[in-house]
Amino acid sequence: MAINLFKSLKTLRHPHILAFMDGMDNDTECSIVTEPVVTLQSLLLKGEVSQESAAWGLHCVLQALGFVNESCMLVHGNICPESIFVTRGGDWKLGGFYLSGPLDTSGPNLLFREWSHILPNKYKSPEVSLLLPCLEMFLNTCTENKE
Q1: Nearest-angstrom CA–CA distance, 70 and 65
Q2: pLDDT of 126-140, one tens digit each?
Q3: Could you tell me which residues come within 8 angstroms of residue 90 by beta carbon, excluding any fewer than 6 positions away?
Q4: Which residues fall within 8 angstroms of residue 125, CB to CB, at 6 or more apart?
Q5: Rounded mean pLDDT of 56-60?
Q6: Where are the alpha helices (DSSP H) in the chain?
Q7: What is the pLDDT of residue 32?
């Protein structure tokens, strides 16, 4: 999974995807350096997300998902507050590509079966086994409605 994250962050370039700065990968560990960010989850827990910033953030995440799904033909598979990052300037960036894979049932389907515990049940769509782009929208809606 860490290799999947490393490879995805290193190769995907988009203004609303977490920027890969540097990294190291070997047989025993994987280290990734990104732009300075905090998780959306940490801001939600502190109550530091206004309606205006949430609207802008959702726009950013949807732009990133559009790029990932349509241009790269990938499924993210792990949309939740822990996989969305916020910059000092308030931009939301999509990260957490642990379960990403090709936009068909041969990619993340295997990862979901092996690592289904990574994504909390409240963020999984009923049709999670199909792994269609609607999964991304379902997960994004769950993130939007998070308390």
Answers
A1: 8
A2: 555 444 445 555 555
A3: 53, 56, 57
A4: 134, 135, 138, 139
A5: 94
A6: 2-11, 40-46, 51-66, 108-115, 133-144
A7: 75
SS3 35: coil
- SS3 labels along 71-101: HCCEECCCCCHHHEEEECCCCEEECCHHHCE
Which CATH number applies to 2-144? 1.10.510.10
- What are the sequence ranges of the domains in the chain? 2-144
Q: Whole-model pTM?
A: 0.70
C-alpha 83/C-alpha 105 separation (Å) is 22
CA distances 135 to 35, 39, 69, 109, 124, Å, are: 27, 21, 11, 12, 8
CA–CA distances in Å: residue 48 to residues 17, 21, 59, 63, 113: 21, 27, 18, 22, 34
Q: Which of 11-20, 37-46, 94-103 has the lowest mean pLDDT?
A: 94-103
* Residues sharing a CB contact under 8 Å with residue 31, sequence separation 6 or more, in sequence order: 23, 24, 25
